[in-house]
Design goal:
Blueprint: H1 15-24, H2 32-63, H3 68-80, H4 82-93
Length: about 100
């Protein structure tokens, strides 16, 4: 491959909801007990996906060449508001020089 070619990698965050949908899809009739267990499975998968989102936010924050003050502020937001903080970081904190 030519060294000046810039190939963009696909963002895996868009693939996670599709994977969750595939894992939770069910085509059979289920009883009430199985429905409760399936609901617990959905919560477990959702929690795992949110944990992955927080970890990706922290890794991205560490890798970015932001000033230390900005990293500390965003790190505190992600730490004290784990899921909401990670979502806010990806929506408004990434690649923006005006936020904090």
């Amino acid at each position: 491959m030519h060294p000046t070619m810039n190939i963009r990698k696909p963002n895996s965050l868009f693939l996670l909801p599709a994977l969750a949908l595939l894992l939770t899809a069910c085509g059979e009739e289920v009883s009430a007990g199985e429905a409760v267990a399936g609901g617990i499975g959905i919560w477990a998968i959702g929690s795992l996906l949110l944990l992955i989102l927080v970890v990706l936010a922290v890794i991205d924050l560490i890798r970015k060449p932001y000033p230390m003050e900005k990293k500390l502020i965003w790190g505190a937001i992600i730490l004290f508001l784990p899921y909401l903080g990670a979502i806010l970081y990806f929506l408004i904190g990434r690649n923006r020089s005006s936020v904090f």
